[in-house]
Every structure is written in structure tokens, then in C-alpha cells.
Fold each of these.
Amino acid sequence: MVPVLFVQAQGTPPPAPLTLIAREGRRAVPTSMVSGQELIALDDVAALFQVTVAEDAPTGAVTVTYRGRTVVLSSTQPIASVNGRVVTLPAPVTRSGRRLLVPVEFLPRALAPIYDRRVDLRRTSRLLIVGDVVVPRVVARVDAVGPPTRATIEISPAATATATPDVGRVLVRVEADALELALPSGGGGLIDQIRAGDQPNTVVLILGGNAAMPRTAITTVDGVARVTVEVPSTAPPPAESAVPPSAPPPASDVLSAAIRQQFDLVVIDPGHGGSDTGVRTADGLEEKELTLDVARRLRQRLETRLGVRVIMTREDDRAVAIDERAAVANNSKADLFLSLHANGALGPGMSGAEVYLLSLDREGEAVRRRRRTDAVSLPALGGGRRTLEVVPWNLAQAAHIETSSTFSAMLEEELRRRIPISPRAVQRAGMRVLTGANMPAALVEMAYLTNPEQAGKARTDDFRNSIADALYEAIARFRTFADAKAVP
Amino acid sequence: MNRHRVLPVAIGVALLGLLAWGVTSLLERLTARDATTIVTATPPPPSETPHIAATLFYATAEGDGLLPVQREVPLAEGLVAQGRQILTAQFAPPPAPYVSVIPPGTALRAFYVTEKGDAFVDVSGISAAHPGGSLTELLTVHAIVNAVTANLPAVQRVQILVDGKEVDTIAGHVDIRQPLSRDTSLIRAQEKIGP
């Protein structure tokens, strides 16, 4: 038999170290980057998890054993047999000098099923959580610059928290072993910075020079604890007389000011419903159920964090005609329309989220180039005439295709940060539900339910929250973009 | 043996020899075929039935696009009859290893072409067994549109009807209320099967 040769790998350090958190404490886990893959040495895995690693030179197979349970790794295929069940890995086991390296995904996918304790890899926050330690996700943001400046710190799943206001700072302490932090890079208004505290379970808000004693409140809704911090200013408000009266706007600007509106209403469309189940997984998860659940999570975030109004095209499991979905958005003059779906393929290999925006035919392209729709002048009640925009139903989206494209790019970026994304990340296609939407609009396929791994993850709170977070962040970014565009 | 008996025997031997040569040549031709060529599941058409090479569209191995595959379909008289033959072949289960993007049970009810060059493909049973998902629905729609437009140059656009009626979508995603033009964005590398 010919001995199998391992691929030799030369790595570079990862952009940030991986930190293992367990009851015993925390420690850095050495990893290296090879061809875009983050790899961990099997001898380090052996030391951290008390597993035995054995190499079968003739076949090239590597066996990892823990208390009689085994993982067999192939050196030629990116797969592992875990207690007889095959799981996929991003790359096969490779060799660097005398050391054997595996992708870090080996830990949650192959080691976790044979290990006694939980092994949870959170790549975004660079945490490897082992055992029953409590590590909630903590998201902080400045909601209003003010004054007063308002900030929110959300803890999910909810944990007991205390907020201690002091001169120049607020200390937030969470009853947890560690925190998975998502903090803004800068501050805003009277908050200079929000950063990790000295202890692993604390967050500190650093206040600016004019900040008065802050007020804090803590609430828990839908499994999320929310710490709200309001920072008033010590400086007196500017006297009204100090501001010179502004000149009356030119007559031509009155109309544009009247039609200019701030971004304040989002319509979320949970795809399918009722007898239309959408894609169904082998174990019975239906697309219509997933879309409704993620839509509810997104609504909760948008209403409480962003303060925008949200309308859903369905609140429960019922069928909604496809035209009715866009009509809900058009009739309520929504600023944004987002349709949620889950994908299906003919084979199990396809995976990852995808974003769709409408592709235009020749007629639609002509509307886009004109960048406006036709208008008619009609007699108004009480005299005079009123100009109404006339939008052909099947061309409504054409006038918004460029802003929809901007929104789609934001969706792609935020999804890519949190969940697996398809190689076909953003696509244009004749999506029926988008054609009639008279506002920026996109459709998100959250995952492939025909992929066994994605179907399994689609059932988890972690996955659904990650998607809701990504969609929320994209909408928050788009609101800033839309508001900036609306200001002359 | 007299000369009257020798002649028929000689002719018989010669015929047997010719038959043996023919069979041997055929076997050699079959075994000498390129090893990468995939043999069609259906036997070669009888020589008296004229056929044309048509491009049909199946799923790629990953299921992420359409694979154009050249197959023999019966030659028919006229544009509409030829279109029916092409669509009937497109709707039929393909030979291994190809995977159809048309749901099982889909049947062609009618096919006609307007003077403007718009074709109408009227089908039944396409929605009931469709597995759903935007990607799969895009593949289904564009396999039909491309099968018609790729093989019938006179047809520029194709509208799909279901049970004789205009419908919004097949499975809730892709707009098929209007005639659609050929879309090559989903097409991957080409293959040829069959003789």
C-alpha cells in the first residue's frame, strides 16, 4: 500500500486570537491562517480537550478518540466520520512540519458530538465556549445623539444586569462568565466610547465633558434584557434669540419639503403561509414557519432599537396573495419592503444566504432611465387640482431599482458577517413579490433548507437571531443612507 | 458436389461473412467511443425516423445552474410541431446522471407561437410537485424558456401558462405573467450525450 502524503501547510497568524472560555478560566487558543482557512493543530486540541490523536500512515487517516468515541479524519477529502456519521469540513487534515492541522470548524462539527461538554465556536466574536458557562451576546449602540444622549445595551439571552451611573462613566455588569461583545467603534453625543470593562462580564460607557449624571433603566422583553442609558447635558440649551430667524423658504421648496419624509416605516413580508408551506426540510421544518419567526424577531429589533414602525404582511400562519403583499407596503407608503424566504435546491450541496433584487425587462429599464413615473392632474375636493403619480403595477419597482441595489449590498455585507452566504450572494431575477413594490425592496433567502447542516441550524435560536441581527443592521444602515439622501 | 449446389452455398457463406463483419465493426465502433461520452439511456433512434440535435437543459451537479445537453429529438414538420417535440423531450426524465429541473408529473398541454414570435407553453401538473425555493423555480422557468428559444430561433420570448391560464408564479417566487426572454445567466458548461 502506498503511504498517503499530507499537504504541507505554512500558516500566518489569524487577525485576532481565539479565546477559549470554560469554568476553569479563559486562555488563548493558537490558530493559523492557511489559504484563507483558520486551522488548529491537533496536538493543541489533544492538550485542551484530553483527546488522543493517532495517525494511520498507510491510509492517511487520522483518528481522534475521546472516551471510546472516535472521529476519523481524511487527509484527502474535507470530511470526517464522527461516530460513524459523515460531516463535512472546509478542508481536509493537513500537515505543517510534524504537526497535523484541521480547520477550526472541526471543533463544533466533529469534536462537539463526541465530547461530554458543550463546544461552541463563535467565530465573529473569536470565542470558543466549552461547558456550561454563560456567555450572552451583548450589543451596544448610541440611539440618539441628543442631548440627552441615549444608548442601549441589549443582552441576549437575557441575564441579570446592573447599571451603576457615576461621574464620567456608567458601569454595566452582567451576571455571566463572559460576554460576547458587539460594541460600536466610536461614541456619539455625550458618550465618548462604549468599551469592554476590566472584568470579563462588564461594559463601560465613557461620558464626555458636558455630561451630567446619567439615568439608567433595565427591562426584559422577549428574552432580551435591555439597559437604557440617558445622559443629559450640563450645558444650558441655546437661547432661542441667539439663533437668527431663518428666511422663509422659496416657494419652490415648500412642495419638496412637504413631500420629504424621514424613513420611519418598514414592511416585512414573511414568505408563504397557510397551505403554501414553501420549502420543507426532511424533518418537517417548513419555510413559512421560519420566515414568520425571523420576521417577528426583526420587528422586535426595529421597533425597540431603531424606533421605526413595522408592518408585517402576515402576523400568523395564513395565506396572503402575492399582490396583497406589495399592496400592504404601497398603501401604507412604506419606506422599505423586505421579503423573507428560505431556499431549496435539487441537491443537498447548495448552502448560504442569497439576496435578490428585481431584474428589469426592456419596459422596466425605460422607466428606470426616466427615474420618474407619469403624473396626472385631477380635480380635488374643495376646488383646485391635485397631481397624482400614476404607477403601472408591474413597473412600480423599476423607479427604485438603484436604491434597492444599495440596500441589497448592505444586506449582503451584514449577512456575510454573521451567517454562511452563497457564492451567488446578490442576484437580479424576476421576483414576483418585488415587481409591485413602489419603494426600495429586496428578497432574502436566508438559508438552503435542502442542505442538511443548514436545515439543522435553521431550527436554532442562534441562527435565527444572527439573521435578524444582520437584517436589522442592514436596515439601520439603509435608514441613515435614506435620511441623508432626503436632506437637501 | 455439382456446380448448381456450390453457388448457393458460396453466396450463403459470403452473406454470413458480411454479417459477421458488420457486427464486428459495430462492436468496435461502440467500444472505441470516447470514454468520457455518456451514453443515452434510450436506444439510438431507428434510421427511418429523422431526428435533430436539440439543446435541452438539466440541473448542474451542484444544482446551482442549468447544464445544456445536446440530445436527439424527433424531427417534426413546422415550428409548432417541432416545439412540441422539444418540450416533450425536455419534460421527460433525463438519462443518468442528469437531473431534471421540471417537476415529475409535468405535462405539455399545448404549444403555440404568435405572429410576433412569442411562444406560449401551456403545462399542467407543474406546481403541485415543485419542491420550492427561488433557485429551483428559476431553473424550472428558464429551462423551459431556454429550451424553446435555444432551438427555435424564430421564437424570441416564451410565456408559460398553467392549465391554460396566465399565473403569477409556479411556486411563489418567479414572475411568469409575461413572456420571458432567453436568460443565459444560469447556464453553465455544455455537454453532449447520445449519438
Note: The interface with chain B takes residues 271-272, 276-280, 287, 322-323, 341-347, 349-350, 354, 356, 361, 394, 423-424, 429-433, 435, 443, 445, 448-450 of chain A (CB under 8 Å).
Amino acid sequence: MTDLSTSLKIEPTVFELSSPGRQGHSFPELDVPHAEIPKSLLRDDLPLPELAEVDVARHFTRLSQLNHGVDTGFYPLGSCTMKYNPKINEATSRLPGFANIHPLQPIETVQGAIGLMFELQEWLKEISGFAGITLQPAAGAHGELTGVLIMRAYHRARGDDRRVKMLIPDSAHGTNPASSAMSGLEIVEIPSDTRGNIDLAALRAECDETLAGIMITNPNTLGLFDENLRQVCDCVHEAGGLVYGDGANFNAIMGISRPADCGVDVLHFNLHKTFSTPHGGGGPGSGPVGVTDELAAFLPGPIAAIVEEGDDEEPPLYGLVTPEKSIGRIKAFHGHFGVMTRAYTYIMMLGGEGLRAASEHAVLNANYLQARLRDTYKIPYDRICMHEFVAEGHWEDAPDIHALDISKRLMDFGFHPPTNYFPLIVPEALMIEPTETESKETLDAFADALIQIAEEARTQPDLLQTAPHRTPVGRLDEVKAARELVLCCWLPEK
Amino acid sequence: MFLPHTDADREAMLRTIGVKKIKDLFEGLPGEHLFPELDLPPGVTEMEALAELQHIADANETTGELISFLGAGAYNHYSPAVVDSILRRGEFYTAYTPYQPEISQGTLQAIFEYQSMIVALTGMDVSNASHYDGATAVAEAVNMAYHNFRGKRTKVILSPGLHPHYRETVHTYTVDSNILLEGEETPLDSGPEALIPLIDDNTALVAVQYPDFFGRIHRFRELIEAAHQAGALVAVHVNPLALGLLEPPGDFGADIVTGEGQSLGIPLSFGGPYLGIFATRQQYVRKMAGRIVGETQDARCQRGFVLTLSTREQHIRREKATSNICTNQGLMALAAAIYMSLLGKNGLRQVAELNFHKAHYAAAQIATLDGFELVYDEPFFNEFTVRCPRPVAEINEELLSYDILGGYDLGQTRAGLENHMLIAVTEMVSREQIDIFVDALAEVAHD
């Protein structure tokens, strides 16, 4: 375990490192005549920092060393699927043939790129069972908005204006209700039953002619495959509604269960979770959306398509098309192509068998950790889990210790904490998703740490409450940040 | 692939769980179609994958092989080697949103510095940690203005000079709301003043672009004054590189500045990932969507940074949040921060000037050609509109045989713009290449 507290110092800001007159990068001399720039258009001053290249390289390298990433250690952040990001993905996405092409080039000059998008669409269809895919959404929440807009457009196209209600299980991610609200829907929360499934009686009571649909996450955020999934879908369909699937937890079901086969009508993928593309410190993600045949005409454009069939001698001509009843664009250009190339590389390397093995081992790892922790931590919905599970970070005989304290103490062992205080239906939740790329040794070390922390909670609660101790900074004052609102800095006064 | 498990590991783990084989873990799953055979190509090794991807990439013609004059919202700029060298650090790119600040100070401080440099560049008070791209940043500006008036003002005026993709995105985002979008059909050559008669006390926002989609640099003082008199907000969408030279929107009264940050060191990458810039006035900070980093102190009294004002966001407010944004463009914001740190105040001005002068040289040369004409009189930055003697698609097809990527065909965007080409000239082209382009245009002027 690295002790970051002694080896690293607080890094000055780039503004504090500035020294007037320095410049970290130069451009070639002007080789054309000077044109007159109207003075009235010009800015007076540009208060940006001035640094040499070496200062910039060191500054950002030192900042990087203050981070925990998948490359530095275990990152069992529930529902985020922090699996290993293969380095080859970084190499392929940076090939000049991908990095240096303009989105508006004539299609004849970018057949490789559009062909790759087409094939990725086909692969995602096969993995999910859907009939149509758009790669345009920039992230999971953006995919949700896209999917909900498609659902609304579908109802509207049928002349059905009454459908204003979206059902959201109480275990859902916050983005689900927010995405529905953004498209003007009313939200009705559906409780979970004692086994962690969607409560069927509560669901049936809401299935009426005002139902636009339901947004489900399966496996859900408890890491459980909903045992009522078929009944839920049937019930919603019978009422004329559509089923939205949040694909955040797709890593549990690749090659095991296809959402479209289960009755899901619309689903977003998170390429940055399931398909190994890096999370980038909070983006860029990519949130392709898959839909059934009935909804394919509503997908946002452009979509990669074959615009001229090929034959034995000529390959097909790929182009970008907009579906007939499309909801329209949801961002500029074609989506996060640089993320697509990474996901494409990953799927190509794994193939169908490899994807299934990835999901199987994700489920194996989660169940192993759950089994190792069951005697120490309360598992409120204790059954075979999928790729993640939720434990309670609280004990009656250590009343002053909370999930937050356990999380902060875990950092001292070199681990990123689990997602905490989510899902909301479990008190003091610790949501643990190990992913398939972690070894038994890592899982054992993590379980050992959590067991030791449970002991410390009784014997040295102070050690937890003041944790972390071995990180570059100690526990941070979030109240002060929100009260004083210092959101930027400036060059020091001369 | 990428699995560390040995057979012995698997056996020991299954024993601990209390099942015999991995398949047993899925026994409780409902459904008839479990374990489908996926019809995908069989898996390959890294060596084979790289060869195949190289083959696909080779089928594309790049801006390294072609002399590019194509812009229209995505620009071919030079990204210094330091930018990508830092982006490749696993500590940055394999981390997630900095939910745990004690082990995320690198990401948090870098975003704080990004916010600070965006504030300096735009002349605004606060910046968020980014949106997905320029288009969604404009859509979020519409969203923010609508919520600022609690839905009581329903009109949003979009300048016809806003990028057509941005306008389309706003339409998609607002289709299920009661927001009325106006202004897009106002005449192109009458400037921002043409929007003033549309402003009334039902107007929440006026959104303009600077320089606009056609390359023109407009003055917005009169428009902004009229909007403010009616109590409406104004969003100015910028190309941040142009702000190396141009008066920042904060100085002429903008309430919101959005931008497409791709020109700050981010590769073209066939359209993404790019960077949505979003900055506003202090008084609207709580109305702004997206993540924000703030400075604070730790338990050891050291300076540190955290995500702040999260009570605005979906994971706390759920359906009451005004936006659903969660993941943003963290790594792209980092790229922009490194780029701006490297160039600094003088470097950014230098590259902006190179763009300005080269574009003006190209424009002057093209204007001398028979049949070609500069369409607008307004000042421009690195992009301008030219009326051509033939359809642009035909010209561009012929230019490709000279290894030239011609400008954007504006005929695709609006009636009346047939034969209009939008030409972008950046620091990446030399005088010699501009001359080759001009000569080629002269040669392909007639069929």
C-alpha cells in the first residue's frame, strides 16, 4: 500500500506557478501578410497563466499522482463498472486514420470510420437483441433522455397524447427520474418488494391509459436480476406503455440474457462501463441506445447505414442516414467516435464467448466477495447476486460509525470505496461492484480490509471517523465549499 | 481475455460461495432465452486486433494526407505533444467522477484550473466542469433560462447564425416542453439587430454565436441591451480560440457563455468526444447544470477541492433537478486546461492571430478569382463564406483529386445558400498550401 500523505505535497495551482514572459508552446512564424484587425474587436487583456513546457508537464503529472484510478488500484464503485481499460484501446483510438478525420468529410473519404460505426451498431444489436441502434448519445444520462424522447414520440405518432406518466422503481439511479422530468413526464415511484424485485401489486395499480412507460434497471441497483421482469413488461405493455431499460448494469448479462428477449423496448448502453472504455475522470462516456423494430424509425440521426450494396468485387458504400420519423439530433455530429473505436476494439478481441466469460466472472467475483463479507456486514437482500451487491455499513454495537467512515477508512488500505448511500432503499448502503478483471488476491485483500475495519469500528471508532490518514489530503470540508463558493482562481496580484 | 482467474481460483471461489459451477449462479434467472449464442466474430488477440483496426483506419483519408479547409464547428488545429502525453496517464483516464475527493485531488484541481481559465477567457464569473459538446451546452442554456423564469417565460430566440446542429439539438431537447423557438428564419444578412423586434416580456433567452456559423463577428451590444430591457437573458456561443484575440462576451454583457472547446487541443476524431463549455454570472450559479468544483480545506487545514453545489443535481434532487447531466467530459476539460496552460496568454493570442491572418490571406486570394465572391462584409476570424460558380459538392469532389479537403457545403443547411462554401483556415496550413488551394479553385471553377 502506498502512503501518499508523506510522499506528496499540496500542488500549487497553475496560476500560482505562472511567471510573466514564459510560454510553453510556440507556433511557426507568420508566412502570410498581416491583415488589419479592427482594434474595436480586440480584447484588452487575457489573464491566463504563463508557464514553460516543463512546468506544465510536471504540474499535471504531479496532479495525476494525487488520483486513484483503475490503473493504480481496486475501484469497486457500484454501478460504475470500473473494469480494467485495455491499453490497446488507447492505441487504436489514436491511430491517425481515426483521430485525424473531420466529421463532415465526404463519405467516400471516411468509409473506414462509418463502416466501423455500422459494425459496432450490428454488434450491439446482436448483444442486446434490438433491431435499431443509435451511437449518438454522449453518455448514459444522455442516452436516457434520447430513449425517453423516443418513447414520447412513439405515443405522439399514434395520436396518443394522454401518456404523461413514467414509473420509476425506488431503487433507480437519479438520472432516470431527471431524464423523464426533462422530457416533461410526471414521475410515479414504484416500491421494491421484500426480495428486491419491483412490487407487482404497486405496479399494476399504476398501469392505466396515462402510462407512458417504466424505466427499469436490470439487474437492478441491488445487483439483483428482477424475478418479475416478464410480468413487469407484460403489465406495462398491456396498458399500452413501453419499457425503458437502463443499461448501466449490462456487465452482468452479456451473452446470458438479452434485454429485447425479456420485453424491454428501449435501452441505453454505457460503453464506458460494459465495454471497457475509460471513464476519463468523469467522461467522455458514450451511451448508445437500442430499440425494437417498432421504435427504430424514431432514432436520432445520423445512423451509419449501407447506402449502396456491395458485391463480390466492391465493398458496400457506407453512409450516414436519418430515420424517417427521427426525434432529431441530440448533439452535434455523430457521437463520441473516439469512444466507439475503443469499444469496437474490445468487442472484437473478446468475441461472443469472451463477452459471456466477462459477465460470468463479474458475477463470480461479486458473489465471492458477498460470501466473504456476509458474516461481517449485513446484506439486506441476501441471495445470489449478479455483478454487484449492497451491504449495510452500520452496526448496532458501533452506533457512531457510518458507511461514510468505512469508505474513508478503506482509502488507507489503498482501495477506492464502494458507492455509498445508494441505492436509497438500503440504509447506510455500500454498493460493491468488483468487475471481472480483478483477481482473487485483490478481492481477498479487499475483504480482509473490510473485516479489519469492522473490527476497528468497535475497538477504535476514532480511527474511522478521522479517516483517511494516508491520502494526499484529509477529509474535506464540503460544507465550507458550498457556503463560501470559491469556484475559480486568478493570477496573483503583481 | 483480461481475466486473471486460474482454474484453482475459480474452484476456491465457487466453494466459498457454495455452488459447484459458474452456471449455477444464474439458475434463478427467469426467461426462456438464457445463454444465447451471440453471432459475433470469434475473439482475436491484441496483435490481430491492432492489424485489423489499422486496416480500417487506413481506409480513411486524414487531415494529415489532405490539405483541409473544412471547419463548420470542428477545426483542424495543432495539439502540442504534452497534451496527449498527460491524457495518457492512467491516474487521470482510468479514474471516474471524483466522488471521493481525498483520492481525486488531481482531477478536482485540474477541473478547478479549467474552470478558472474558462472564466479568464470568457470574462464571466463562473464556469462548470463541462457539458458534452457545444450543441448540448446551448441546449442546457435554453433549459437554464427557462427554469430561471420558473417556466413563466416560454419564448427562446435562436439566431440563424447558430450552428445548424446546435439549433436542431435545441429543437430535440424542447419538443415536449411549451418552449417556443423563434428567430431562425430571420434574414441571414441583417445581423443580430433583426432579432430585436422578436424580444418581448415572454422571452427567456436570446442565443447567438460569436463568430457565427458563417464566420462573421457581430457586435451584440444593442441586442443584449434590448434583451436586458425586456428582462431576458442572452447566451453567446463562442469558439474559445477566437477569444485569444476577441473581446470576451463577459465584457459586452452576456449572461451565459457556451462554447465548443474542441479547438483547445482536442483532436477531430470524426466528431467527438469534444468539450461543451458553459460559463455564467455569479447570480445564476445555482441555476447552472453540470458538475462544479470548489475550493475548501481538509481536516489538516490544507487547501483541497471538492465537487460542490451538488444539491442542484439529479442524484440528490432526482425528478426535481433541472437537468439530468451526470457524466461530463472530464478528460476533454483536462486537455483544454493543459492546452491553455501551455500556450498561456501569449501563445493563445499567437495562434489566434495565425488563424486570423491566414484566413484573411486565403479570403483575399479567393476573392480575386473569377466567379468566386466573399458573401459578407462583416469582419471574420478563421472562417468565411464564399459564393462559388458551381455546386460546392462538385467542386469538393474535384478538389479531392488535388488532395484538398474543401470547405463545407452550406447548400445543405438552408435554402438560398446553394453554391455557398464555408472555408476554414487554421494555423495548420501554410501559405504555399493556401496558394495550391486557390489555384485548384481557379481550375475547378467551371465544369
Note: The radius of gyration of chain A is 25 Å.
